[in-house]
Design a protein that fits this description.
heterodimer, A: 724 residues, mainly alpha, 5 helical Cullin repeat like, elongated, B: 5 helices, 47% helix, 13% strand
Chain lengths: 724, 98
Amino acid sequence: MSSQKKRNFQIEAFKHRVVVDPKYAEKTWKILEHAIHEIYNHNASGLSFEELYSVQCACVNVKLYSVVCYILFRVLGFLNRNKEIKVGHKQAKRNAYNMVLHKFGEKLYSGLVSTMTSHLKEIALSIEASQGDLFLEELDRKWTEHNKALQMIRDILMYMDRTFIPSTHRTPVHELGLNLWRDNIVHTVKIQLRLKDTLLELVQKERGGEVINRGLMRNIVKMLMDLGSSVYQEDFEKPFLVVSADFYRGESQLFIESCDCGNYLKKAEKRLNEEIERVAHYLDARSEVKITNVVEREMIESQMTRLVQMENSGLVNMLVDDKYDDLGRMYNLFRRVPNGLTSIRDVMTVHLRETGRHLVSDGERLKDPVDFVQRLLDIKDKHDKIINLAFNNDKMFQNALNSSFEYFINLNTRSPEFISLFVDDKLRKGLKGVSEEDVEIVLDKVMMLFRYLQEKDVFEKYYKQHLAKRLLSAKSVSEDAERSLILKLKTECGYQFTSKLEGMFTDMKTSDDTMQGFYAAMGHELGDGPTLGVHVLTTGSWPTQSTTTCNLPPEILLLQTSSKHITWGHTVDADGLSYREVEQATEIPTSDLKRCLQSLACAKGKNVLRKEPMSKDIGEDNRIFFNKFSSKFYKVKIGTVVAPKESEPEKQETRQRVEEDRKPQIEAAIVRIMKARRVLDHNNIVAEVTKQLQTRFLPNPVVIKKRIESLIGDGKFLERERTI
Amino acid sequence: MKKEDTVKLISSEGFEFVIDKNAAMVSQTIRNMLTSPGGFAETERNEVTFPEISTTILEKICQYFYWSLQYASGKETEFYIEPELTLELMMAANYLHT
C-alpha cells in the first residue's frame, strides 16, 4: 500500500457509549421487562420498537466493538507492520469485552425467562379456573394470545436472537417461549390430565354421532403439534390410539355377533373412512397411518378368518352370488392388513378347487363333453369377472384362479379329449352364423383352457383325429376359424406342435386340386355316374389308425372314403343280407360297420337301408335290405353318427399310443440336454427334461429314468461316470 | 406515491428520508418493525427514528436499499462506499441486519 493513501486514512473515535456500568444493564432491562408486560396486557401500541430494539442492542452489542476493534487492529497492524503490539493489545481488549457481553446477555436472557414464566403461571391459573366446556376455549384463546405476544417479543429481541444466543448455544426466543408454555401450562398436573380427557371425550362423542367443535379441536391439536411432535405423541396420540383400540375391539365384537359379513364390512369401511376424515380435519397427518392401523387391526385383522368363513354370508357365498360390491369392499379392506389378501385367496382357491373337482368328477357331466367344457368356461368367466370388478385385477388372484383351474382340469384325464370335442362341436355346427369376432372369442377361451392342460400332447392327438374327421367329411364350418385356432396353437406351443396339423390342410388342398383336375379331364366321360371323392393323405401327418382293410364290393354305387370308415352303399338283392354277410363281404371292423349301418338304416326319414327287426341298434342277427326308391329330386343326406366320445378300450388305446409317442420325445430331450451339458447327475437331467417338455406334457420321472437307462444300454448314447 | 407504500426514516440529527416500504424492507430489522403484529408505535405512525445513525450514514443506507433491490433484480453495478464511512456503515448494517 502506498504512503499517500496511508495519510488519507483517518479513524474517528466511536460515537457510541461504551457502557461497562452494571447499573446501565439493570436500567435497560427494566425498560424491556416493562415492554414484555405491556405486550402480554395487549398494550403494545404505545411502545417504540426502535427504542426497545436499540436498548437490547446496546445491552448485547458490545460484541460488535470487539469485532470492529479486531478489524481495526488488523488494518493498523498491517499499515504499521508492528505485529506484536497488535496481538497483545487485541487480546486484552477482547477478553474484557467478552466478559461484559456475557454478563449483560445472561442478564437479559434470564430476565426474559423469569418474566415469561411468571406471566404463564398467571395464565395457567385462569385456565384452570375455567369451567367445563369453556376449558378448551380458554386454553385456545390464551394460546393464541401467547403466540402473538411471543412473536412480538421475538421481534424486539431479534438482535439477541441473532448474536448472543448462537454464540452461547441457548434456546432461541421463540422456541424458549414454546417450551415455557409447555412446561407451565400443558404439563402442569391439573391441566395435562384434563386436556387429555377432554380431547378423548370429544373424539368419543363424535364417534357416537354427535357434532363437536372441530375448529377448536384443530387449534388445540395444532398447539400440541407446535409444541413439538413428542408433546403431541405423548399427550394425545398415544392415549388416543389406546382408547381407539379399546373402542373398536368392543365394536367389532358387537358387530360380528349381530351382522352378516357384508354388513360388517360396510360398517368397518365406514369407521375407517371416519377416522381418515378425522385425521384430515383436526389431527396430524402422520397420525393417519397409526389410527387406520388400529382400526384395521381391531376391526379386520382380528375378525378376518371369521368373516371369510362366515356361514351364509362369507366369502364363498359372495363368490357364488356374484356380490361384486361386497367382494370389492372386502378386497379393499383386507388389502390393508397383512395376510388379508392371502386369506381371501386361500379361501377362494379352496372353493374353486372344490367346485372344479365336483364338476370334473361328476359322472353325469362327463356324458356330455360339450356341456362339460361349457361349464368350465362359465366358471372361468364368472371368476374372471369377479377378479376384474371386485379384486382390481390383482395378479395374485389371477394366479390363484389359474392354478386352481390347472389343478382340477388335470384331475380328469379326459379333459384334453373333452376340450378337443368341444372345439369339434363348435367348428362343426356351433359357430354357424356367428360373427368372426365371436368365433375368435370362443377360440380364445378354448385356448385358455388349453393352457391349463398338462398333457398337451394328448390334446394334440385327439385334436388331430377330430380335425381329420372334420376335414375328410367336409364338416368344418369355416376354414378361417380352423386356421386361426391352429395359429393360436402354434404361438402357444411352437412350430413342432402344429406342423402336422398344417400338413393336413395342405393335403386337403392338394387333393381338391387333384380331384378338380380329374373332373376337368374326365368329366364328360363320366356323365351322370356317381361322383367319386378321393383324398391323398401324407402318412405321418394324419392319425394312423386307419389301416383297416375294406373289400369294396364290385358293384359299388357310391363310395365315400374317410380315413376310417366307408359309407357303404350297395345293391342288395331284395332278400337282403344278414349282418354277418355284410361284415364278411366288406371286412370292415365291427365298430365302424355298425356305425355306418346305423346312420344308413336307423335315421328317421332318411333310411337308405331297411333292416329287420326295426330297432335303434344294429344287432348281429339283423337282416338288412335296400330300401328301394327312386327320385331325381330327392337328395338323401346321410349323417354319420357324430364323432362320439371314445369308448373305454379306445381310450386305453389312445393313452397307450400317447405314451409311446412320448418316448422318443423324452429321449430326444435327454440327448439334447446331454449334448449341451456333457456331464449331469440324474436329478438334474430329470428336472431339465421336465422343464423342456413342460409345454407339451408333464413327463413321469419314472419314464424318464427308463429312457435314460435305455439310452445307456442300447444306443450307447450315454454312459455312467465310472468313479461313482 | 401512496402514503401506505412509503416509510419515513429519521436520522439522529432529525433529517427525514421518505422511501419505499419495499426498499426499507431490505433491512430485516425494519421489516420486523413494520410487520410485527400488535402494532408498535412505528407501525402506526409509519416512521422510524434512529437516534444512533447520522444523516450521512442514513443517506448512504437508503441508497444501498435501492441498489440492493436493483441488484437482486439482476442489474449488477458497483456500490461505491467512501472509506471514511466504512466503520459506521458496518455498525449500522449490524444494527439493521442487512
